[in-house]
Each structure stands twice: as structure tokens, then as C-alpha cells.
Amino acid sequence: MTTTQKITKSKKFDNVQINQIVSFEENNMINTGVVDMTNDKIFVLRVISTWNNNGVIVVYERYLHFFKSGKKTNRFYIYGNAIEIVGNV
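Request: output the structure for the sequence above.
Response:
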């Protein structure tokens, strides 16, 4: 290998497309979301989550950002990394 050759990391999610289902890790569980947006470097999952507010179940929508390698875009985010493409909507 010469010094002019560039070493690139393999990007597991290079071919991810809108409306595909992707699994990710959160709270020691495997969850899934639908790809809502993608560009050269990142993709965004749309996830429906629930929260129990004193017996009232609240349903809300979240957007989770990942690099094409599967890593989350900020180390302070509480969710884990993307795991794999599961299927299509």
C-alpha cells in the first residue's frame, strides 16, 4: 500500500434507503425504526415510543441519527448503535 492510498472504513449501512426498517439497541433491548432520511454520511430513523405518565400511556415520535457505519452521531445520545437492516415497510 502506498501512502497516497486512502483507507476507508466499511460502512455497513451504505445502501440504506428510505422506508427500510433498521434495528438498534436501546435500554438493553433491540428496537426497530423506519428510515426517514438519508444522505452521504448519515441516516435518520423515525421511532414511535411510549411513556407511562401515572397510568396514562403517552405515545410520541422520535428521530434518531446514525452515521452510515451504524454508530450514533453523538456519544451523549442515550440510545445505542444501529445493528442491521431488517426489511422494508
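The two ends are 42 Å apart (CA to CA).
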